[in-house]
């Protein structure tokens, strides 16, 4: 009997650990130099990324169409259309007359001196046409892109806090190392927003664009859906793209929603991973693109937009209607595993389904009732005292 009890307990613990481990995203980017082409159900290319995608990942295109990955074969993934998201619903609502009078002062107070933290998890990332290599340990061209972002924020009245911390090598533990940097920035500087600046790994045409007559590299936003703030960060990303679409249409290439990632976004409600161009783009175009992106931030941080309750689209894409965040789902799976494990424990420890059912019934009718008894008696006594008064 003791051996069966130990076996059952070991199984429950192992099952819970397996679910926890399998829920987290381990490989964030491809390591083989390839990239994924994502096609719709008609076979037309709708997205390209160097991120290591999984079935269940979602993405929002430049045209604000939201898709979900349903199959992956080699370097090609197929996605189904969820719906078109009305990003205007993520913009601030029309102000009242009195708020309009106060708006310039409110915005100035929000924008003046507001701190924005910038760091680089992958400190080696570089741009081949300019830097001569896609990777330079501890000295990647990505630092200069981060500096251009900081300079743009400064010109827009914000206060950049730029970290030059190194997190090499470029492996899946880099996010664990950069977490210490992000924590330090959040704790010491209390920024209004935090950005982890990266670059992608796809052909140059994927990010190349022209904004205001200038050749630039576009920006992609990346949201980790696994962490506890997955839904909040998603809404924040939608707001950034909505604002960018107004200020610089076409600048934000899209938003990638990684089902199994969190990217340290649980540390701050306005934490965002951005990818500026790809290793095949020249760094100068990435610097120009991120400078344009900095123009968007005062409006994002200075205004408060209500979270939309029902954007256009058959499934309410981008809202609570699209489902619980990754952490909520994981908690549900863990609870289900523990309940299942407890049932298995009863079966193994008693030796039969019938005996296990009898034990469970005894617990809920006797032991649980005995536990609630004193509480019920206290409540009845309080009710009697109240009636006497």
UniProtKB/TrEMBL annotation:
InterPro entries: Spore_II_P. The keyword Membrane applies. It comes from the Bacteria. Residues 1-27 form the signal peptide. Keywords: Membrane, Signal, Transmembrane, Transmembrane helix. The keyword Membrane applies. Residues 307-323 have a biased composition (Low complexity). Residues 302-323 are annotated as: Disordered. The chain crosses the membrane at residues 331-351. It holds the Pfam family SpoIIP. This is Stage II sporulation protein P.
């Amino acid at each position: 009997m003791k051996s069966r009890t130990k076996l059952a307990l070991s199984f429950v613990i192992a099952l819970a650990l397996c679910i926890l481990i399998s829920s987290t995203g381990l490989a964030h980017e491809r390591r083989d130099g390839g990239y994924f082409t994502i096609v719709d159900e008609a076979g037309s290319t709708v997205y390209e990324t160097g991120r290591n995608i999984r079935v269940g990942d979602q993405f929002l295109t430049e045209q604000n169409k939201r898709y979900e990955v349903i199959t992956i074969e080699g370097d090609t993934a197929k996605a189904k259309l969820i719906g078109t998201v009305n990003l205007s619903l993520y913009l601030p609502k029309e102000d009242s007359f009195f708020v309009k009078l106060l708006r310039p002062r409110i915005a100035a107070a929000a924008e003046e001196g507001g701190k924005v933290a910038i760091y680089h998890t992958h400190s080696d990332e570089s741009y081949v046409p300019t830097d001569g290599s896609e990777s330079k340990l501890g000295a990647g061209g990505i630092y200069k892109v981060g500096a251009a972002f900081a300079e743009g924020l400064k010109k827009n009245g914000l206060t950049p806090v730029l970290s030059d911390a190194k997190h090499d090598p470029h492996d899946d533990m880099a996010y664990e190392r950069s977490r210490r940097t992000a924590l330090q920035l959040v704790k010491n500087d209390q920024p209004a927003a935090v950005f982890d600046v990266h670059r992608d790994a796809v052909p140059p045409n994927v990010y190349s664009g022209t904004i205001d007559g200038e050749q630039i590299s576009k920006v992609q936003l990346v949201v980790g859906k696994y962490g506890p703030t997955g839904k909040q960060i998603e809404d924040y990303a939608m707001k950034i793209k909505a604002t960018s679409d107004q200020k610089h249409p076409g600048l934000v290439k899209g938003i990638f929603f990684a089902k199994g990632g969190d990217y340290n976004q649980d540390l701050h409600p306005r934490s965002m991973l951005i990818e500026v161009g790809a290793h095949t783009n020249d760094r100068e175009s990435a610097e120009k693109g991120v400078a344009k992106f900095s123009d968007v931030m005062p409006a994002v941080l200075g205004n408060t937009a209500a979270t939309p309750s029902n954007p256009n689209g058959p499934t309410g894409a981008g809202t609570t209607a699209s489902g619980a965040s990754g952490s909520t789902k994981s908690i549900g799976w863990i609870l289900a595993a523990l309940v299942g494990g407890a049932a298995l424990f009863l079966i193994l420890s008693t030796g039969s389904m019938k005996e296990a059912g009898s034990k469970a019934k005894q617990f809920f009718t006797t032991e649980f009732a005995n536990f609630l008894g004193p509480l019920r008696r206290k409540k009845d006594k309080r009710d009697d005292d109240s009636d006497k008064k």
